[in-house]
């Protein structure tokens, strides 16, 4: 059994917390990964805007629909090459760590960013220098997480310095803390050349650092012109039954986020997942 979760911004036409609560409940979901700026673009949500009252109000409104924020998103380019911009982004993340408990969240999530101003694939991310820079930043954020009593959830991916299982292990060795967790998105770690090995990758991840995995993103995909293209769960190539079985074995009741599955496709995805769970 798993705690299936959706991103708030995968629901279309939602402009208020009340609408988010209603639409989430309609899909049969009880957990959200909430990106404030993406779900509510008119709500100021920068470093200086978050406050305990905001968190409490959103938490209370969602609870009326039996919905909670499991993961608070603060996806930033934490190794932005401009020092001033970087500092602003890190202060925003630290503000989210301080305030996440008022929203009821278990963690604040981000990827690790890119050596370029815009996050995209570049082999420059794969250098030891980029990795060392990233480690220093995460060490700072984890210290803030320790002070706030809040998990820092870091998501690896091929567009970042944290691009492989080996690099994840190196990060965990470099930053030893109960407040550093890994959000595993196996679709972010595959290419059109090795996607057939995705299930084995998930198994290896749990074998190597499963104790640090705090959530999993389940993102289905197709391959077009040698590119991984996200689609609704059940419409692509991901072996969701095998992957969810691995998660349930190692981390029962873990947050599993149906990333990029949109609107009424969420109900269909849940039916597929429940059917796969029911099989012996």
TrEMBL record:
Coiled coil: none annotated. Residues 56-269 form the Xylose isomerase-like TIM barrel domain. Pfam families: AP_endonuc_2. InterPro entries: IolE/XylAMocC-like, Xyl_isomerase-like_sf, Xyl_isomerase-like_TIM-brl. The keyword Isomerase applies. GO terms for molecular function: isomerase activity. The keyword Isomerase applies. Keywords: Isomerase. PANTHER family: HYDROXYPYRUVATE ISOMERASE (PTHR12110), XYLOSE ISOMERASE-LIKE TIM BARREL DOMAIN-CONTAINING PROTEIN (PTHR12110:SF21). This is Sugar phosphate isomerase/epimerase. The lineage of its organism: Bacteria, Bacillati, Bacillota, Bacilli, Lactobacillales.
């Amino acid at each position: 059994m798993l705690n299936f979760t959706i991103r708030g911004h995968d629901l279309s036409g939602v402009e208020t917390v009340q609408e988010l609560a209603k639409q989430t409940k309609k899909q049969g979901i009880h957990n959200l990964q909430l990106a404030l700026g993406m779900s509510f673009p008119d709500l100021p949500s920068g470093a200086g805007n978050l406050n305990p009252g905001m968190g409490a109000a959103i938490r209370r409104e969602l609870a009326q629909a039996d919905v909670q924020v499991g993961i608070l998103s603060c996806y930033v380019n934490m190794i932005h090459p401009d020092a001033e911009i970087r500092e602003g982004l890190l202060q925003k993340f630290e503000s989210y760590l301080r305030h996440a408990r008022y929203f009821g969240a278990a963690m604040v999530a981000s990827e690790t960013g890119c050596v370029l101003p815009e996050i995209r694939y570049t082999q420059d991310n794969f250098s030891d220098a980029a990795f060392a820079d990233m480690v220093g930043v995460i060490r700072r954020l984890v210290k803030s997480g320790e002070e706030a009593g809040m998990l820092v959830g870091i998501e690896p991916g091929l567009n970042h310095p944290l691009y492989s299982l080996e690099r994840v292990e190196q990060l965990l060795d470099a930053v030893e803390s109960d407040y550093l967790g890994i959000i595993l998105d196996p679709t972010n770690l595959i290419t059109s050349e090795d996607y057939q090995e995705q299930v084995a990758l998930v198994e290896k991840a749990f074998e190597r650092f499963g104790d640090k995995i705090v959530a999993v993103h389940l993102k289905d995909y197709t391959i077009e012109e040698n590119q991984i293209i996200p689609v609704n769960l059940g419409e692509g190539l991901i072996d969701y039954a095998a992957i969810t079985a691995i998660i349930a074995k190692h981390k029962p009741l873990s947050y599993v986020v149906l990333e990029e599955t949109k609107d009424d496709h969420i109900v269909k995805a849940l039916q597929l997942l429940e059917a796969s769970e029911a099989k012996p």
